[in-house]
Hints:
This protein is of the alpha/beta class. The protein folds into two domains: about 5-70, SH3 type barrels; about 85-380, Aldolase class I (TIM Barrel, Alpha-Beta Barrel). It is built from 13 helices and 15 strands. The strands form three sheets. Strands 6-7-8-9-10-12-14-15 form an eight-stranded parallel barrel, surrounded by five helices. The protein has a five-stranded antiparallel beta sheet with strand order 3-2-1-4-5. Helix 3 (about 135-150) links the parallel strand 6 (about 100-110) and strand 7. Helix 3 packs parallel to helix 4 (about 165-180) and helix 5 (about 195-200) packs parallel to helix 7 (about 230-240). The longest helix is centred in the first third of the chain and has 25 residues, at about 55-80. The radius of gyration is 20 Å and the shape is globular.
Amino acid sequence: MCYSIPGKVLEVADNFVTLDYFGEKRKARNELFTISCGEYAYAQGGFIIQKIPAVQAEAILDSWQELFFKLKEIDERLARDSKTLYQKANQIRQKYHGNSCCIHGIIEFSNYCRNDCLYCGIQHNNQAVGRYRMEVAEIIEAAVFAVEKLRFKALVLQSGEDEYYDENKLVAIAEGIMSQSPCLLTLSIGERNPDTFEALYRKGVRGALLRFETSDPQIYARMKPGHSLTQRLDLLVALRKMGYLIMTGFLIGLPGWRKEDIIKDITLTAELGAEMFSFGPFIPHPDTPLAGEGQVSLETALEVIAEARIRNPEAKILVTTALETMDKKNGLQLGLMAGANSIMLNATPRRYQQLYSIYPFRAGTDTEIESRIEFVIRLLQSLGRAPTDLGL
């Protein structure tokens, strides 16, 4: 099953196109293709990321049409109740987004990092972790496989802040992927020079996943020695001005964090103009200075998702792998039913997955990606969600 439905181009105006999906009309930005009315295209995150021949698009639409409306009925039925905070949030999600649920693949290409963030298992000073780096050609190969064989239309490339990948290597990676298998390409590589992000944008990168971790400057300074919250926020603002889709958020339950900080953290996420809200629970790693710290409850993590949805009805909200890790059997479903509508699946080559140990026992690292995809598709269908992203 595809993770995006092609739309028919109804109108082209400057850099925007209007797409039709079974009678629903959505807008998307087009910066990479020459496109005309009557043609078909895929959109992700509000960007046209691929054109598709009419014969192929119409076959996909024919196979989807009946299922699409059946799923909508299931989703509407499940969203009718609004007695609890979670149910209210899910009802708002359904009202503003329908049954759309975007699915991103993620490739974690290096666990080297120059930083010593106290909460992170791949921090520079952790001598217990087995380090790895994927070479440029290997990263491109893995990304092409994820798009062409696993059928992801949105892909995140993530690493520690690894200076081995200089601007030339990063540009080569982006160029190699976008020339062979266009997709909504997002980078999660920490803080880099704005000029580097400008160069990557020119090569087709359109998303930046960069969490600010906490809205409290003092907690930030303690958790990330040598760094300041202002520096991180300035970069996020600069990236948005460049045209990047911003995916950002915070860690729930860092030492010093209080429940009353929920609203502050959610508010800052929204003020940054986040295309996707990403926040997960802090899970202590045994090989870090915070090994003995406690962690928040699953209920608190779900409350954050629900509050974010209620306060920001139009946001895309991610069910993080950290939340799934807290309840590997039900965490994904609970997050989706608390108002979330985005998922990220690990497409990193299996030999590296468990080495990217930012926290222990991560969900999804003990299963082949094909099996993981099948499980997620079945879950989404049971909830009436269509694995699609219908643009702006």
